[in-house]
Specification:
The structure is a single chain. With 391 residues, the protein is of the alpha/beta class. The protein folds into two domains: 239 residues, Aspartate Aminotransferase, domain 2 (3-Layer(aba) Sandwich); 126 residues, Aspartate Aminotransferase, domain 1. The strands form three sheets. It has a seven-stranded mixed beta sheet with strand order 1-9-8-5-4-2-3, sandwiched between helices. A three-stranded antiparallel beta sheet has the order 10-11-12. A two-stranded antiparallel ribbon has the order 6-7. Strand 6 and strand 7 form a beta hairpin. Helix 2 runs parallel beside helix 9, helix 3 packs across helix 4 and helix 3 crosses helix 7. The longest helix has 19 residues. The protein is globular and about 75 Å long. The protein starts with 23 loop residues before the first helix and ends with a helix. The structure holds pyridoxal-5'-phosphate.
């Protein structure tokens, strides 16, 4: 397949890759909020944070403008910067490693497991140097990483852990929500995620110090909250100890977050049912191997990924992607491994990244969204089956 051609042109979509779960009531509330006096940094943000802490059972939640902002602030809260190394998995969205660069530190890329695509424990161990300060495990597609082992390595080597939970709202490891094992956990509410605030993110932590740091830094470094500034003294009487960022979450986003978080179990149950249906149908399909999911009931089921085995299936992944698209089915690849991007090519790597290379050639993410119908799933399954052995 020539990559230069516009393969998306003139194609009619029968099954989209995702559809966000936004109701008529959500839209009504958003519209109402535009008439309120406080459009950002307001009561809805506080309410969203409170609900988020309750759901994840974390002491503090800090709403921000994206998961990238959340990761960046988390690393800054830990004092990670120039000269430090942070271990990240090769198979992740580029933001995981970009955040390390944004903090002034260096990402060190580790390999992933061939079955659940999560960061590989042996590869973490190989990647530790005298400069390593932290690990960022990514709960890939909602599958929790082996947090017992990761925390054991971190403890032994005096490392921090920032969990990238961008995919994993509603994923539990040993009955505890992911993001509560490390120092901080970071969530994304990008449009394709299980809940969306359009753009948006959240940090969770049990540390008051980290939470305070994130709350100040997301708002330009201003030492007082809006409430504090307008309830005592002059509102301009605040200080800046360290330059901060504009990583705030506005009220519209917070309202969307609150509404969807209230129905997260319903959202995730529908996604889990869809995953179980795909699993059942692909169980006996030669050449199609779904990502291993340890416990569907405790998984956010953010993505449904299969490996296309070229020999057994008779067609290679790129061709399958193209043929499905021609037949109106949108799929995707999560992700091109970090080490293949120019920006990371010069980094030192301590492992051979064998698994992420194998996976990158074979993985395909199938349509999965809240409320996807069996009819839509059957179209995906039968069209995929019909492509078998096409060259
Ligand atoms: C694993 C992972 N980390 C971080 C991010 C960054 O999220 P955001 O777009 O909210 O900055 C994403 C977004 O797709 C992601 O998938």
């Amino acid at each position: 397949m020539k990559s230069g051609k516009n393969i998306f042109k003139n194609l009619k979509t029968r099954v989209p890759f995702f559809i966000p779960n936004i109701t008529a009531n959500d839209k009504k509330l958003v519209s109402q909020s535009l008439g309120s006096g406080l459009l950002t940094n307001g009561p809805n943000l506080l309410k969203f944070e409170k609900l988020f802490s309750k759901y994840t059972k974390s002491n503090y939640s800090v709403g921000v403008s994206s998961a990238t902002a959340a990761l960046h602030l988390s690393l800054k809260a830990l004092g990670i910067g120039k000269g430090d190394q942070v271990i990240v998995p090769d198979l992740t969205f580029v933001a995981t490693a970009n955040a390390v660069l944004m903090a002034g530190a260096t990402p060190v890329i580790a390999d992933v497991n061939i079955d659940d695509y999560n960061i590989n424990i042996k590869s973490i161990k190989k990647s530790i140097t005298k400069k390593t300060r932290a690990i960022i495990p990514v709960h890939f597609a909602g599958n929790p990483c082996d947090m017992d082992k990761i925390m054991e390595i971190a403890k032994k080597n005096n490392l921090h852990v920032v969990e990238d939970c961008a995919h994993a709202l509603g994923s539990f490891y040993k009955n505890k929500h992911v993001g509560t094992f490390g120092d901080l956990g970071c969530f994304s509410f990008y449009p394709t995620k299980n809940i969306t605030t359009l753009e948006g993110g959240m940090i969770i932590t049990n540390s008051k110090k980290f939470s305070n740091y994130a709350k100040i830094s997301r708002n330009h470094g201003i030492t007082k909250t809006l409430q504090e500034r307008y309830t005592g003294g002059f509102p301009w009487e605040y200080d800046i100890h360290e330059a901060g960022y504009n990583y705030r979450m506005d009220e519209i986003r917070a309202i969307l977050g609150i509404q969807q978080l209230k129905r997260i179990e319903k959202i995730n149950t529908l996604r889990r049912n869809a995953v179980k249906y795909y699993h059942k149908k692909f169980f006996n399909m030669d050449g199609i191997e779904p990502q291993f999911i340890s416990n569907i009931e405790k998984n956010s089921c953010h993505l449904y990924i299969v490996r296309i085995n070229k020999e057994k299936f008779g067609s290679e992944r790129n061709l399958v992607f193209k043929k499905l698209l021609e037949r109106g089915i949108q799929t995707s690849v999560h992700y091109k491994p970090l080490h293949k991007f120019s920006v990371f090519k010069t980094l030192k790597v301590f492992d051979n990244l064998k698994n992420s290379n194998i996976l990158f050639d074979e993985i395909l993410s199938l349509p999965l969204y809240t409320g996807i119908s069996k009819k839509a799933q059957n179209i995906v399954i039968s069209e995929l089956e019909s492509i078998k052995n096409e060259k």
